[in-house]
Amino acid sequence: MPGETDTPGTALVTGASSGIGYELTKLFARDGYDVILVSRRRERLAAVAEELETTYGVDGHVMPADLSEPEEAVSLHESVVDAGLDVGVLVNNAGFGSYGPFLDDESAVDRDLIELHVGTVTTLSKLFGREMADRGGGRILNTASIAGWAPTPNSAVYSAAKHYERAFSEALAEELADQGITVTALCPGETDTGFFDRGDYDKSGAADGDRMSAVEVAEAGYRGLMAGDRVVIPGRLNGFRVFLRRLLPRRLYVKTVKRAVTG
Questions:
Q1: Is residue 91 in some structural domain?
Q2: Domain count, the chain
Q3: Residue 167 and residue 161: Cα distance in Å, rounded?
Q4: Tell me, what CATH number does 175's domain have?
Q5: Is there a domain that residue 146 lies in?
């Protein structure tokens, strides 16, 4: 299995400028990985790169990209290839949500969300996964969510996208296992990041609940990734919420989720 005999190489992390992604970059750098930093914010990425280089002595490669734009994932891959970098670990972490009645949402927001969580995750996994297969191994970490088990009224597109990420990750993990590639779905619940500052989630009932720290979630995801786990659910409460999904009738579960998110 990867991780037992391999040496640190290069990890690519999307959504690396803050939150879970930022915390993951430090964990990779701590263990000797050079890190390709991807997000929309060039200045913030440059600051993170300097921090990683100064603190851990690794290389931080800054590659700004808006991965909600079609073809941007392909362009990112081309930039990595042109830079002569081999990605041994791919972290698809960039994301955002949208809260509110589906019929009131702007269609452009829905398209961006689907492109980022579905299109980009699929494209980057394919392009870098092919290279990993050619080299005989690698790792992929996809930040999904416990919303990937819970159809969520007032957040229908986001929860559907997270269902895709989780199912995609689990299927890919089985498909690529014989090629030495592990795929891990990180499925956190509410986390103390900038997520609630975008997409009107500050108006949801979920915004008032207890949140895990980005450090806790990143550490759980990193451990699971290095262990080759296929699904990581940080926190006992989040694990129970997923377990509850198996016990309740589907319609009752969705009604329960709706009450929770609408407060």
A1: yes
A2: 1
A3: 10
A4: 3.40.50.720
A5: yes
* Catalytic option among 22, 33, 56, 158: 158
What are the 10-residue block averages of pLDDT along the chain, 263 residues in total? 58 97 98 97 97 98 97 98 98 92 92 97 98 97 90 90 96 97 94 64 58 93 97 82 70 69 69
**Count of residues making up the chain:** 263
253 catalytically annotated? no
Asked whether the beta carbons of 19 and 186 are under 8 A apart, the reply is no
pLDDT given for residue 2 in this prediction: 47
Count Cα atoms within 13 angstroms, Cβ side, for 37.
31
Does residue 34 belong to any structural domain of this protein?
Answer: yes
- The reply to whether 1 falls in a domain is no
Residue in 152, 132, 160, 121 with CA at minimum distance from that of residue 255: 152
Q: Which residues, at least 6 apart from 65, have a Cβ–Cβ distance to it below 8 Å?
A: 14, 38, 39, 40, 72, 73, 75, 76
> For the stretch 48-64, what's the b/e string if a residue is b when 16 or more beta carbons lie within 10 angstroms of its beta carbon?
bbeebeeebebebbbbb
Residue 208 exposure: Cα atoms within 13 Å on the Cβ side: 7
Q: What residue numbers bound the domain in which 170 lies?
A: 10-262
Burial of 78 (0-12, 13-18, 19+ CB in 10 A): exposed
